[in-house]
């Protein structure tokens, strides 16, 4: 495994993404957060900061999700469809290096994206804090620019890394449209995995229980990475929890990327 | 001497159809060898298996059976890939990058230093005539320009063997002339060139050996001059200002006359008749000579013949 | 605010909006991991709805007769959904507690809803003594059940981190019931500590109201003295003014005049004074009666 090759492919992905659509999402995010902070002042009865915190985290997550899915799919599916992959394969690059390089490149892109969004968000929060009186600030549960919120950002990044792995996996064998649909479906379904666990209480001892249990363990639990509410209310997030979520994500990612490498290595490129 | 490229009973079946996939044999037991330094033409009608062969050689697809080797190593060998170049059919690269960036990126995949990559990219872009547009994003390029980029990227590592799939596609006559010149230059350098095409005139002017595939099978392979034949089976004479009265008599002598334009006529003489007396005869009556050329079996005729022989039924998988 | 409201959300009074409140749980599911943000949206709706309805009431706009609706009836569902989506949404609970219990025209007059919301708040956030305190306050002020109020002040005192004056307040409530001094104390507490401007303003209003009630009491005392001294039963304050007992016509801070209730010989203040009806002195429940249950919806 040639690390230099991985680096070069990853950088090529990063450059392609930056030229593609990613900056628009950054601009969109900045406008959204700044615009909202300006507009909502009147109607929230003093809750502006909480709302901007919620909005920033939610927007980061959603924008990140769409970038992860659509660029993630494009990495392999679109390249196969458009045949731009032909010339790369003939170069001294292993197929596994290609897939891993693409994964690394998109993760890097997303991380940079989220970092920039986080910086903008903190700036807006800082500005809002600066505009408020000290007395009013006493009533806040947490400072506007509370650094503990970075835990939520970190877990959002881990979750996005998982989504990219899912997108990569599906795009090694499915057409772009289907790959996108499956990835989004898995993302949504992953939020309901807790329900599956409760479902087997409803279903009782029937064989259906094995299916629901199996699905529960198989589906990635997306809700695990969501600590947004906790950090906005300055409730503590134990480091053990963060570690567990990271390890959980890492396992899934490893499995998915390994599967993607295996499939990609064996298939014909029509 | 090891062949630069060789295949042995190379076969590729595809599964076609969704519900009950039937195998479709795209390539049937192809066996051939290309010597180093050759310019080898791989010809055939559309759908004959040319692109499939190239994809098998590039390991874009995997063979159902049989083997292929490049420079003595099985295809897919990483070291060998350092020494080959490939131009895909209708190439497509990354829209958002400039030509310079694409070439630098590809060069970097060989492990050259950053400075070396840039130098190579610049040199190649000049060589294919894109020096002025190097900083433009590829989305703005015409088809012909993209083709040139494709050629450039195939040469980025100064390959010993180069594979070209329809290299002339999308190029105007000037472009084609340039590519022809390039291929000859590469040949002079000793590069082995394997190119597939369905345009025969290119093969005729460039190749030393050709293979013709049709219906997934190798129909014939050999040196151009052997196949196309040196035998002259007639003469073609073009003259102008021929008296109408003479024309009438020529038919009786087995000479076919075709009017081209404005008093210009093409005469086909059988092999038995020498052209010199014929020319002298017509000149005496006031006609002027434009050209004399020998007629021999063209590659086109061979091609058509072989394709017809291969028949419409495609060999099924056994 | 009205224009912001119209821009962001259509008129809340349309029947289609009823569907929005099917279930906070269901909404929570659909929101995936974006519940907090959706809670914020509902919070904004609640605030706008409240402000808009208040404005309507001030302008005399009422819901269509026969529509089966009354003003403010969406306030509880909105706050309920908000707090289901974000169970730690502190302000929503306290805002709801204050304004759900307020009678017309400032609120729907539903102390039961206020209590329900506060119970939910405490169940989700067992460290927040403020919700029990607010609940006690609802019983004290809106329901006038001083026994319950005392009980809940005592419960609030049991929560760790509750302020030191809580047990004292509980004891006092037990003994005194609803006198003006404790009322004043509670409203002052609320005014000085509430995070919300609305809530503070509301508390300030009630303190002023207590001041006006004090004035009414003094007028009543004066009236009774006059009656016992002169034997007359005046129907207005004119005689007292002529006799020099009062300097001028007694009015509330806005200029609405006091009147006399001849049957009870008390000064009273009626609409259109915004301070009417004045809070009465409460009577503590007899010691042997069981604490009353909050009326169910």
Kindly report the spatial arrangement of strands forming the biggest sheet of chain B: 6-7-8-3-9-10
Count of individual domains of chain A: 1
Note the overall shape of chain B: globular
Give the total of beta strands of chain A.
0
Give me the Rg of chain B, rounded: 24 Å
The N- to C-terminal Cα distance of chain A equals 26 Å
Structural class of chain B: alpha/beta
Terminal CA distance of chain B: 34 Å
What is the number of helices of chain B?
Answer: 11
Mean pLDDT of chain A: 85
Please give a structural write-up:
The complex is a heterotrimer of chains A (270), B (318) and C (297). Chain A is 78% helix and 0% strand. By secondary structure, chain A is an all-alpha fold. In chain A, α3 (48-82) packs antiparallel against α5 (95-131), α3 (48-82) packs parallel to α7 and α9 (193-203) runs antiparallel to α10 (208-218). The mean pLDDT of chain B is 85. In chain B, α3 crosses α4 (114-127) and α4 (114-127) packs across α5 (143-154). Chain B is α/β, with parallel strands linked by helices and 318 residues long. In chain C, α2 (24-30) crosses α4 (75-85) and α5 runs parallel beside α7. The longest helix of chain C has 34 residues, at 197-230. Classes of the chains: A mainly alpha (270), B alpha/beta (318), C mainly alpha (297). Chains in contact: A-B, A-C. The interface between A and B is medium-sized, with 25 and 33 residues.
What are its keywords?
heterotrimer, B: 318 residues, six-stranded mixed sheet, four-stranded antiparallel sheet, 14 strands, 33% helix, 31% strand, C: 297 residues, mainly alpha, 12 helices, 56% helix, globular, disordered C terminus
What is the element layout, followed by pairings?
The complex is a heterotrimer of chains A (270), B (318) and C (297).
Chain A: H1 3-20, H2 22-39, H3 48-82, H4 85-89, H5 95-131, H6 134-138, H7 150-171, H8 176-191, H9 193-203, H10 208-218, H11 228-232, H12 239-266
Helix pairs in contact in A: 1-5, 2-3, 2-5, 3-5, 3-7, 3-8, 5-7, 5-12, 7-8, 7-12, 9-10
Chain B: E1 5-16, E2 22-34, E3 39-43, H1 50-57, E4 65-70, E5 73-74, H2 78-81, E6 84-87, H3 99-108, H4 114-127, H5 143-154, E7 161-165, H6 173-189, E8 192-197, H7 200-206, E9 209-214, E10 217-223, H8 224-228, E11 232-240, H9 244-250, E12 256-261, E13 264-270, H10 275-284, E14 288-296, H11 299-310
Parallel strand pairs in B: 3-8, 3-9, 6-7, 7-8
Antiparallel strand pairs in B: 1-2, 1-4, 4-5, 9-10, 11-13, 11-14, 12-13
Chain C: H1 2-8, H2 24-30, H3 35-58, H4 75-85, H5 90-101, H6 111-124, H7 129-143, H8 146-158, H9 166-176, H10 180-193, H11 197-230, H12 238-242, E1 259-261, E2 266-268
Antiparallel strand pairs in C: 1-2
């Amino acid at each position: 495994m040639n690390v230099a090759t991985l680096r070069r492919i990853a950088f090529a992905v990063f450059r392609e993404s930056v030229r593609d659509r990613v900056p628009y999402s950054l601009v969109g995010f900045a406008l959204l957060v700044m615009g909202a902070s300006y507009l909502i002042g009147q109607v929230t009865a003093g809750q502006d900061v909480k709302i901007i915190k919620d909005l920033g985290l939610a927007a980061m997550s959603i924008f990140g999700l769409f970038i992860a899915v659509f660029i993630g799919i494009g990495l392999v599916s679109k390249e196969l469809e458009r045949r731009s992959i032909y010339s790369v394969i003939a170069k001294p690059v292993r197929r596994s290096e290609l897939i891993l390089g693409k994964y690394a490149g998109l993760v890097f892109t997303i991380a940079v994206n989220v970092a920039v969004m986080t910086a903008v968000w903190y700036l807006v929060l800082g500005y809002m804090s600066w505009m408020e009186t000290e007395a009013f600030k006493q009533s806040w549960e947490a400072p506007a620019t509370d650094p503990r919120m970075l835990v939520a950002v970190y877990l959002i990044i881990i979750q996005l890394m998982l989504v990219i792995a899912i997108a990569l996996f599906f795009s090694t064998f499915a057409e772009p449209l289907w790959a996108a649909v499956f990835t989004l479906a898995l993302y949504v379904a992953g939020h309901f995995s807790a329900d599956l666990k409760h479902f087997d209480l409803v279903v009782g001892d029937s064989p259906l229980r094995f299916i629901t249990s199996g699905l529960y363990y198989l589906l990635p639990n997306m809700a695990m990475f969501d600590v947004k509410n906790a950090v906005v209310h300055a409730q503590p997030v134990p480091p053990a929890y963060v570690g567990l979520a990271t390890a959980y994500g890492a396992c899934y990612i490893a499995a998915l990327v390994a599967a993607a490498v295996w499939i990609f290595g064996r298939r014909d490129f029509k | 001497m090891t062949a630069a490229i060789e295949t042995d009973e190379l076969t590729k079946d595809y599964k076609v159809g969704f519900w009950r996939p039937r195998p479709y044999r795209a390539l049937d037991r192809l066996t051939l060898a290309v010597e180093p330094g050759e310019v080898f033409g791989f010809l055939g009608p559309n759908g004959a298996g040319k692109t499939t062969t190239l994809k098998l050689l590039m390991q874009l697809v995997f063979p159902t059976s049989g083997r292929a080797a490049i420079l003595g190593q099985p295809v897919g060998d990483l070291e060998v890939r350092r020494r080959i170049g490939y131009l895909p059919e209708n190439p497509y690269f990354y829209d958002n990058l400039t030509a310079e960036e694409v070439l630098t990126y590809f060069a970097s995949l060989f492990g050259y230093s950053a400075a070396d990559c840039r130098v190579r990219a610049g040199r190649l872009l000049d060589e294919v005539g894109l020096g002025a547009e190097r900083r433009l994003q590829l989305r703005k390029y015409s088809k012909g320009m993209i083709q040139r980029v494709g050629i450039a990227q195939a040469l980025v590592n100064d390959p010993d063997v180069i594979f070209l799939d329809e290299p002339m596609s999308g190029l105007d006559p000037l472009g084609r002339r340039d590519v022809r010149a390039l291929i000859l230059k590469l040949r002079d350098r000793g590069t082995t060139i394997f190119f597939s095409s369905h345009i025969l005139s290119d093969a005729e002017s460039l190749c030393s050996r050709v293979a013709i595939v049709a219906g997934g099978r190798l129909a014939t392979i050999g040196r151009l001059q052997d196949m196309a034949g040196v035998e002259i089976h007639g003469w073609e004479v073009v003259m102008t200002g021929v008296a109408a009265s003479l024309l009438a008599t020529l038919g009786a002598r087995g000479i076919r006359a075709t009017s081209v334009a404005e008093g210009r006529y093409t005469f086909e003489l059988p092999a038995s008749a020498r052209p010199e007396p014929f020319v002298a005869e017509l000149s005496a009556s006031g006609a002027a000579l434009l050209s004399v050329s020998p007629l021999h079996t063209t590659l086109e005729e061979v091609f058509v013949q072989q394709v017809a022989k291969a028949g419409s039924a495609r060999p099924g998988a056994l | 605010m009205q224009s912001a409201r119209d821009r962001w959300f259509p008129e809340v009074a349309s029947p289609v909006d009823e569907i929005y409140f099917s279930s906070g749980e269901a909404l929570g599911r659909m929101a995936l991991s974006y519940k907090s943000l959706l809670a914020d949206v509902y919070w904004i709706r609640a605030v706008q709805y409240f402000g808009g309805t208040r404005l309507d009431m001030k302008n005399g706009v009422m819901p269509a007769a026969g529509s089966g609706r009354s003003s403010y009836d969406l306030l509880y569902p909105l706050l309920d959904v908000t707090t289901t989506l974000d169970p730690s949404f502190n302000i929503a609970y306290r805002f709801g507690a204050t304004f759900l219990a307020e009678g017309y025209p400032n609120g729907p007059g539903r102390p039961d809803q206020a209590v329900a919301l506060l119970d939910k708040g405490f169940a989700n956030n067992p460290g927040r003594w403020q919700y029990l305190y607010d609940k006690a306050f609802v019983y004290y002020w809106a329901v006038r059940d001083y026994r319950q109020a005392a009980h809940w002040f005592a419960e609030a005192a049991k929560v760790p981190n509750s302020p030191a004056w809580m047990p004292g307040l509980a004891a006092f409530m037990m003994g005194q019931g609803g006198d003006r001094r404790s009322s004043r104390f509670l409203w002052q507490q609320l005014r000085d500590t509430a995070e919300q401007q609305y809530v503070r303003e509301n508390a300030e209003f009630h303190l002023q109201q207590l001041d006006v009630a004090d004035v009414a009491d003094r007028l009543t005392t004066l009236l009774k003295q006059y009656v016992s001294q002169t034997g007359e039963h005046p129907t207005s304050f004119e005689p007292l003014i002529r006799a020099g007992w009062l300097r001028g016509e007694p009015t509330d801070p806005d200029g609405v005049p006091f009147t006399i209730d001849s049957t009870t010989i008390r000064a009273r203040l009626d609409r259109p004074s915004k301070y009417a009806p004045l809070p009465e002195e409460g009577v503590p429940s007899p010691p042997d009666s069981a604490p009353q249950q909050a009326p169910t919806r």
